[in-house]
Amino acid sequence: MAAFKLAQVMVNGERHVFRSTDIFDVATKKYVSEFISETNTSIANLEAAIANKAPVLKAADIAARDALNNVIDSQLCWVIDASADPTVTAGAALYLSSVSGQTVTWAKLTEVESLDLIVRWADIQDKPSSTVADIDDAVTKKHAHANASVLDAISTNALTGNLVFNNVELGSFTGVAVGASAAAATDYTAKMQLLVEEYDPEA
What we know:
203 residues, alpha+beta, 4-stranded mixed beta sheet, disordered N terminus
């Protein structure tokens, strides 16, 4: 094991040179020189991994991606216009390659437009206690009224502010119309006022 000079220390006027082979770690039972060797090996392995790392590919569209040569397994490709992919409406997407022999298949990892997510009602947290069918039914009936025809006949006079029912304006009193039939009773000029007082049947 080659010596590795670490430091020079003066002890009682005498110079002492410490080498990596002179210092021993009791906990790991290794000399410092062994740590240095392992570190150098790790650095070399890291540099080799970086040097051999496949670059991220870039293609203009899906057709250009499929025409790429020398694609290796687990390689990324950024497709600028991935709209030819049925799962992409528009925009770019990132794909990961899978190589088997001469066949290259691509799996979409993500896209710029959105992610393909399927969320089930049963998996939603803090959702309404109503069922999906009940909610759909409530939405369908949001403007449904049993007396819709009566409600539609009610309005107000923009000038007087009085209530209007079936195109007849109701004033401060209830209008009274007299006629041979309901269709003929259109004149509500008469007025009727109902006065209610306290009544004691024993009096």
